[in-house]
Give the backbone structure.
Amino acid sequence: MPTELPTAAAVAVHLDALLATSTVPDYPPALNGLQLDNRAPVRRVAAAVDLSRRTIEGAIAAGANLLVVHHGMFWGGAQRLVGAAYDRVRLLLAHDIAVYASHIPLDCHPELGNNVLLARELALAPDRGFGAFKGIEIGVQGAVDVATAELVRRADAFARTHGGTAIATPHDTPRRTRRWAIATGGSASSETLREARDAGIDTFIVGEGPHHTAVEAPEHGLVVVYTGHYATETLGVQAVARHLEREFALPWSFVSAPTGL
Ligand SMILES: [Zn+2]
């Protein structure tokens, strides 16, 4: 175990290799990797879903100087550093806090990914990937034999630990789940619902999605379980922080800032 504290750059090199940052495809505003450097060595890590004023203030309160997030500083695309965007950067610089972001690399990772970890939370065992995106699969799927209502209950219990609720649609069908898929975050769309149907999925667990996906679900024979964009993406950043604790002996904490969605 190293005795010297690592720089943010050294932590980023380690995480980029672990998460395959340079090869996993993503949307350009994700800008995965070290987004903001700092001067002092990393002494404590804060993990959060979103980079926001709330989570920066949470990191400051925790005494952290590396903030690991899923949705990074540039999520809204290129923007002028004025108003709220300026305030965020000023706060980060004033407290010498580095920012490391990992979006899809942290969704699809086989050990630290949001999708495999949500499956574990729901006591589901994946047997293959799901959710095609630019040549990779982001989510997971598997077989089970459980009452769908029981699966919804588990998803709801999980969502409630992060300030949300799980909503299943259609919600009044007494049936069993034999084949499920998980795609965390804003993953329900006409395309992913069709992909689920074509893969023989009967229960599709997502973060969130537009209203029309709830209309389409029964037409594909699917129950879609909306478990919350925020809740379903709390697991990966915590797994990364836990990994850094093992690797670099860095203490860490989770900055809870639920959106309710
Ligand atoms: Zn997301």
Observations:
- Residues 71, 185-186, 229, 233 surround zinc ion (CB under 6 Å).
- The longest helix spans residues 235-248.
- Residues 16 and 22 are 7 Å apart (CA to CA).
- The chain has two domains: 8-102, 108-232.
